Amino acid sequence: MFGKEVHSKIYFIGLACLAASLPLSVFTTSLFEIVLAANWLLEADFKNKFRKLRERRSLWFILSIYLVFLAGLVFTKDFNYAFHDLRIKLPIFVLALIMGLSEPITSKQLKWVLLFLVAGVFASSVSSMAVLTGIIDYAYKDLREISLFVDHIRFSLLNDMAIFSLVYLILERKMTRVKWERIIYAMLLCWLVIFLFILQAITGIFIFLGVGFILFWVYLHKIPTVVLRWTLAVFVICGTLLCFSILARSVDRFYSVEEIDLEKIEQVTINGNPYTHDFSRMYIENGHYTWLYVCEPELKKEWNLVSEFDYDGHDQQGNRINYTLIRYLTSKGLRKDSAGLAQLSSKDLRLIEQGKANYLLGRKFSLYNKLYEVLWQIDVFRKNGNPSGHSVTQRILYLQAALDIIRDHFWIGVGTGDVLISYAAYYQEVDSPLSERWRLRAHNQLLTFLLTYGIIGFIWILVGILYPVYLERKWNDYLMIMFLLVGFFSMLNEDTLETHTGVSFFAFFYALFLFAWQDYEIDLTENGKPDN
User: Fold this and answer.
1) Domain locations in the chain?
2) Are 497 and 445 within 8 A, CB to CB?
3) pTM score, two decimals?
4) Closest listed residue to residue 484, CA positions, set 459, 501, 467
């Protein structure tokens, strides 16, 4: 419509803006996906595009995945959810078609696309820090909510992509030839790593550490000097050992529990009121037993004098305030009576009202807070068996539910639209201890595929994703391998392809690194294969 050169520029600008939009706006992400699709249609040249489509076998494998999704309609009862799911996953195939049938972008253009991604992630991280430090007046209940634009887990994945992209730009000479550029990229990389730990998104942190570890050893041989190679190897090994040491010390610290002499345990407060000692609930906070030395009548009276939050009401997290107060006092080693409450500062009172059940959780920049929270959830689950409301241990029951449903529908799955129906029926059938609001799906994309489409559909989906990497000869490409590792690691802990942001993340980078950028920067030959 506007000429090939104009459409090529729109295509490149659309890719760059889409990369920047992923961490900043769901709306503009959708907008630039539409811009890319409209530009592709208006560019016409369909004769050449159909020729490429016939010749590019990798595209057919990707498009065949959608046939699996459509085949799942045969066994579906809930068509509303099925059509919603089909619509959500469309960008995977639309972006693959657009980039697979368009001319490849140059190395310089790829560099700008990656820099736009980094800029978007950096801008989002700055806004999050502004919220955390109070520069932006925004009420948040926990650190997950300082990610203003997209879900904190998706944002952490994009943060990981930006980090590994910066590593590529720093080390790839043809991308960055000027020293001062590398210095800027290194500074940005350091900030994004620091911010990832500030955000405390466990999924993003583990993916960063896991993928970084794998990529380092895979590409270690490409480091030019032996001294530098082994220096870095020793550094990585020591860093890995340090991580395990910190984890071991955290577990040891958590389970360092005070000793209780049952014969000498006191029965009344200093005011003469009786204590309650519940030995059936031996939960701990910072090594102290939660349900020993509890006098709720004194707590209720004194709490209602110092706080506008009623003792029998709820904190800002929606938990019972009396429960939060008792845990908080325990975390400080105080007795749960009027004397213990009197030792709390105004800051302590505000933290309790905010739903912080342990004084450690009031520290904004401590990674141990998150480790402690995970260990506490595991400890409670071991002693109680009901993980409702606990994000980590709930997943144990989610995985169990998924595996049981898969066992009953192993070959062909439950169908495209019946995932939620199947989970609801399962939880009802086994009388799950999970409360109604926490009866969710597996949070594992691979299991979701297996549950939905059975082993046959699951294998075909994996083939449809991975075999094109072989056909396009990208099995040794850093960016492609890096993305696949990030993407598949995320699928182990999240339903990555069940939300618009997650689908757009996967669809964009998969098509970008597989099709849009070719290291040899030439078009397909007549036989449909790249010609080096």
Assistant:
1) 223-256, 259-384
2) yes
3) 0.86
4) 467
